[in-house]
User: Fold Mannose-1-phosphate guanyltransferase from Geomobilimonas luticola.
Amino acid sequence: MKAVIMAGGFGTRIQPLTNSLPKPMVPLLNRPMMLHIVELLKKYEITDLVMLLYHQPHIIKNFFRDGTDFGVKITYVTPLEDMGTAGAVKCAEKYLDDRFLIISGDLLTDFNLQKVMDFHEHNKALATITLTSVKDPLQFGVVVTDKEHRITQFLEKPGWGEVISDTINTGIYVLEPEIFNYIPEGENFDFSQDLFPKLLENREPLFGFTAKGYWRDIGNTDSYREAHHDIFKGRINVRIDEPKQDFVGRDLRLGADVRLADPSHLQGTVVIGDNSQILGEAHIKDSVIGRNCTIEPGAKLNRCVIWDNVYIKKGTRLNDCVICNNVRVGQSVVIDEGVIIAEETSIGEEVYIKQDVKVWPRKVIEAGAIVTANLIWGEKWKKSLFEGAMIKGLTNVELTPEFVAKLGCAYGTSFPKGGFVLAGRDAYLASRMLKRSFIGGILSAGVNVRDLLMTPLPIVRYKLKTFGELGGVYFRQAADDPASTEIIFLDSDGLDFSSSMGKNTERVFFKENFRRAHHTEPGRITELPQVVDFYREGITRGLDQAGIRKGKFKIVIDFNHSPAGQVFPPILNDLGIEVISLNAYVDEERGSKTTEERPVGLQQLAKIVATLEANAGIWLSPCAEMITLVDEQGAIYEGSGLLELFVALTLKAGQKGTFAVPVHAPSTVEIMAQERGCAVVRTKSSERAMIEATLSPEAVMAGSMDGRFAFPKFQAAFDGMFAIGKAIELLAAVGKPLSHILADVPRRAFLQTSVPCVFELKGGIMRKMSEDSLDKEASFIDGIKVHFGQDWALVLPDQYLPVVHIVAEAKEPKAAQKLLDEYKKKVEKWKKEL
Assistant:
């Protein structure tokens, strides 16, 4: 008699175990599941096999080949498309000219197949379905038979009210070749849904045989783990390749060349594959260890399934989880019940992975991280959620509605019940989607939301300066990656979240210690339609209206399809400024321009400014925080050049005080400030550090290296709209065109680059840099800045990206390039040494 093994499924329900393997090849006791089925068939002298393949067929063929090594003969049939279960068998019709048995390649069973075949022959059946009784028949197809064992009814995944039997279809059939008369050629046709109901309708001899013994459909990861538990408990006997050792009270199976330091700490059934080593006092109970694995001393494994080439470091605690091939588990990691770690994943030290989390292949989990949700897309699960005051992730991949709702609940829990928070977003549809989910989480913690809807970020910050809200949050599309969303968290003063605030929210999020409001006490949502008028009044009060009107300025602004295009032009018109607006309409579907499109947009802006003989052109970022200036001749000012321009404008307009700039800003700002009797304060490069420096009474301005400016007399926050107004006010006071402002400023060469560097090496790089700078004049505000007279070089590890920034400045371009190259070579050399 022949047997057909169904081995073509995609295994989607059991992912991520099947990302690189077809489901029948997933290992069970260090052997493919399907090999257990082949041996069951051999036990009943069924050795002529037809394997029906579809998904990743080459893996199955490479393992079984022609079947000789396993004492069987194998014929492979691979349909060209998904034909359904019966349709796939139809493709093998030419090999099945006599009675045959069908069985799935992903079952675990010890049924007596001979009894099934004898029953079929005794009843002269056309088809016999093997049945079994289960406690919960709802997830299976229930089959009802009469006293003669004829099938009378099928119930596909019934409700409890429909259940009239607990016998279900096991997927094991005995069929006569005449069955092919009922299966159409070239159609998608299923046994349960199409063929068997058709036989029932035609009153054909269709029988059900209720088999006794063990049966499990290994359809998902829970069932996969439970199958191992059942084997350990002795509910089914399967072949184990590794030889049994003589130890009283335990079932220990060791493969070839296994190194086992101390077997006394092994309990229950423990299977260890070839060439694996268990070092020192590793505690292992009821677990399977694959081939070429290393488990260090102090590790504790309970009911675990470990595949091949896995390294588990000391102090780890793994409980009822599955670790796939080529995984590295760092020191003192804790992995809870039900966790699946797919292949080629690296888990850092002291990571905690919570119950039932699934980690897809080739992920990196940073040391100290707490993983609470499935890690499917992206490459990394970070130790902390926050990058400064921001959480950033791929939209609908890393930042999903369910993740963001949970985050909103954690954020709301950090505030007293009944408090108010402010929420806003940019014009992007994804921002709206995620903000709504986040707000739902806040409301569930009993905190109220004042929703500013689609509005520029500076308006959110400005409103927070007034009494009423405990904090704020803003959703925007990432400027450097349109597929990502950034969530900006603000404190009650409109400043970026402090690190302690971020840690508090993270603590609640990871521990899931959420406050759930009573059903009568959820938060409520209100809107503030007058907030734009409030901002407009503030911005006009903060500027010299008379001076601006006298200048009769004409400016061109590219609004980048942002909400500022609806808010800002009326403010400028009230100040007597003629505004030519570009891209001022909101385009929710398109989102903002990408980083690649920006240079083209700036060139177009420059041409328009020159053609219209405007006084200036401004490119305003979509969230209205960042600007780029174009002078009346079409020259573009951005980065360090724009910072120099703003400092020069402010000084020439006669304003006195201190200027806050990041540590890597050009030293021309100091030269200009000292000439006018003003001071410069160098800060860390973070937004909050720069803004905090403006809170002193002497502060005039804070300026970043990416076009963001804050004027504390208006608000201590980066505000692109006010910066435009201030630039026009200063230009009116100076009485010169923009192109003349930097004419008398001493020029210096300013260069910067970045070197890729993994986080693990950053500390070592900075130690080497510190040692190298011992005999030099150096400062340590942010990174290490080494001075060579008036020239300098800075080595600054990026806070969130795997790079080290190198900045150099000198009087002459050649000297700056020499400094940059010298420190770049040093960093590369230190990386190799480390």
Remarks:
- The chain has five domains: 2-217, 240-381, 390-529, 534-740, 749-833.
- Residues 336 and 355 are 5 Å apart (CA to CA).
- Residues 813-833 form the longest helix (21 residues).
